[in-house]
Amino acid sequence: MPAAPEPAASAPPPPPAAYVPPPREAPSTSSPAGTEDASVGDLVKELSEQSSTLARQEMRLAQLEVQEKAKRAGVAVGVFAAAGIAAFFGVAALLVAAVAVLDTTLVTWFSAAIVGVVLLVIAGVAALAGKKQIEQATPPVPEQAIGSVKRDVETVKSSAKH
Question: DSSP characters for 128-159?
Answer without folding.
Answer: HHHHHHHHHH-S-S-HHHHHHHHHHHHHHHHH
